[in-house]
Amino acid sequence: MDSNVELARIKPFKYDDKLTGRKIAVQVSPYYSMLVVDDRVYYFNKESGELDGTSIPMGEKDNQ
Fold first, then answer.
1. Among 28, 38, 44, 54, which residue's beta carbon has the most beta carbons within 10 A?
2. Which pLDDT band, with edges at 50, 70 and 90, does 62 fall under?
3. pLDDT in tens, 13-60
4. How far is CA 4 from CA 1, 7, 32, 53, in A?
């Protein structure tokens, strides 16, 4: 692990940002910490802290 990286503890929460209209949340599972912005979920591996992937909300078209 990079010696310049600091680990942080964060508790799950939900926040409705009235200024931007965004719904923001942090969720945790045994293997992942998830950052949720509206319908999009960003998965971070708990062991490494690295971004593991993102969700594609239902109804969003694939641009491939």
1. 44
2. low
3. 999 999 999 999 999 999 999 999 999 999 999 888 899 999 987 775
4. 9, 10, 22, 23
Q: How many residues does the chain have?
A: 64
Q: Of 33, 26, 62, 64, which Cα lies nearest the Cα of 47?
A: 33
Tokens of 56: 């594609």
pTM: 0.75
Distance, in Å, from the CA atom of 56 to the CA atom of 27, rounded to the nearest integer, reads 17
- Residue 24 CB contacts under 8 Å (≥ 6 apart), including other chains: 14, 15, 16, 17, 35, 36, 37
pLDDT of residue 21: 97
